[in-house]
Design goal:
The chain has 208 residues and is α+β, with helices and mostly antiparallel strands. Helices cover 29% and strands 23% of the residues. The protein starts with a helix and ends in a 33-residue tail after the last helix.
Length: 208
């Protein structure tokens, strides 16, 4: 009798947990030409580098995630881009990709979810200068753009934000009184050193 009850309880736990969505694997990857001319990739932001993350909107009204890096994450981000040549003359604005694909040339930053590129763009010259000077590390906030709101929510969750899944959001909407309105997506005060990859459509980023 006790064994039967225990088995039933275990089955219930497995069934209840099977519907939960697994956290996505997210990162920002620098893709650039190596010394031998082939393209190489270096992860410049991982979940461990993120102090906070929150879904938001970009300047042009698109979906995105506001990210603040840890001190260590900001320093490694700066060092990696400087070492890779992202701050050298001509590297800024050299990204030739079109939104959500790996570049075949130039210097691009890729926002990657579960191995899939969901956004790609290059740096602006002002941002490259703040990275080169070390100013970015003093205010390490990034705005990462995505193609869809769903991708933005997945990215934020992967970076540690408490964002409800689609099912949880639907349940919350169903349970909410009809007179209660949802809060708008918070804005993001873009600092001087903001990731141009997130503002490609709205910050004057030039692509070839």
């Amino acid at each position: 009798m006790h064994r039967a009850l225990l088995a039933a309880a275990l089955v219930a736990v497995v069934v209840a947990g099977s519907g939960a969505a697994a956290d996505a694997d997210a990162s920002v990857v620098a893709r650039y030409p190596a010394e031998n001319g082939t393209m190489t990739e270096t992860t410049v932001v991982s979940a461990d580098d993120v102090a906070s993350a929150e879904p938001t909107t970009t300047r042009n009204g698109g979906a995105g995630v506001a990210v603040t890096l840890t001190d260590a994450g900001a320093q490694s981000f700066t060092d990696a881009l400087v070492d890779a040549g992202f701050t050298t003359e001509g590297a800024a604005r050299s990204c030739s990709t079109d939104g959500a694909e790996r570049n075949d040339e130039g210097y691009c930053l890729l926002t990657v979810l579960d191995g899939e590129v969901v956004y790609a763009a290059g740096l602006t010259e002002p941002l490259a200068e703040t990275i080169e000077s070390g100013e970015f590390a003093e205010d390490p906030r990034l705005l990462l753009a995505t193609a869809t709101e769903a991708d933005a929510n997945r990215l934020a969750r992967a970076f540690g934000a408490d964002v409800p899944t689609t099912t949880e959001a639907a349940n919350a909407t169903t349970e909410r009184p009809a007179t209660e309105s949802t809060s708008p997506v918070p804005g993001f005060g873009v600092p001087t050193a903001v990731l141009a990859a997130a503002l490609a459509a709205g910050a004057g980023l030039a692509r070839r």
